[in-house]
Amino acid sequence: MPRPRRPPRAGALTDVAPWRILRQIILLQTTYYICATIFIFFTALVAGRKISLDLLFQWQSVRGDTTMGWMLGLVWMLNSLVTVIFILLLVARSKLVPDFAFTIHFIHLLVTTAYSRSLPRNMLWWGLQVASSALMTVLGIWSCQWRELQPIQFGGHRSNEGAGRTTTRPAPAGGGDGGGVIANMLGRAGSSGGEYELVAMKEREGEP
């Protein structure tokens, strides 16, 4: 008897259309490289270094024996922090954040390997990718969960009109102090937020 297949976890990639997944990956990867290009080129300009694509796609640029190498590492971490904003806007599902975060760094590994024509052999570069993916995953899950827990509002804002409105019930047509006393008690209870107030009643001693 074949072993029953385990159902996919809720919110997995199988619940999303493939074309939508592909579009989100392309958008996230594009914004990831656009922000990295702006940050790295600005850092190189301030440091007086030559602007080149090697700073962006060559793994030899991230090294621990130069100041520029450490600066590039910090810039990549800053870039991961900014990418969390785009994950929140484009993905917005906490259970999908790890998949997209690891996909971004895996594609970056492929692009870096193809550009440098060699697999990265720098331990600092690998440590940077692990720290960057961990930061993106943790902050992405936290931000998406925070957004998921926000109350849903229908039709704009909630109206609180009538919350303190007092309902006055008319006395029954048959007359009598008993009906008026009950209506008075109900009216005072509504105006006092649920706290009943004792109402003085006439003592009718001797009446049948």
Strand and helix map with partners:
Blueprint lengths: L17 H30 L6 H4 L9 H24 L6 H20 L6 H26 L28 H15 L17
The helix content is 55-70%
Please give the count of helices: 6
Oligomer designation: single chain
Q: Care to count the β-strands? A: 0
Low-confidence stretches: 158-169, 191-203
Main sheet characteristics: none
Q: Which strand-content bin applies to the residues? A: under 5%
Mean pLDDT over all positions: 77
**What sequence of helices (H) and strands (E) makes up the elements?**
HHHHHH
Termini separation (Å)? Answer: 86 Å
Shape: globular
Strand pairing plus helix content: what structural class? mainly alpha
Radius of gyration: 33 Å
Written description of the protein model:
With 208 residues, this protein is mainly alpha-helical. It contains 6 helices and no strands. Helix 1 crosses helix 4 and helix 3 packs parallel to helix 5. The termini are far apart.
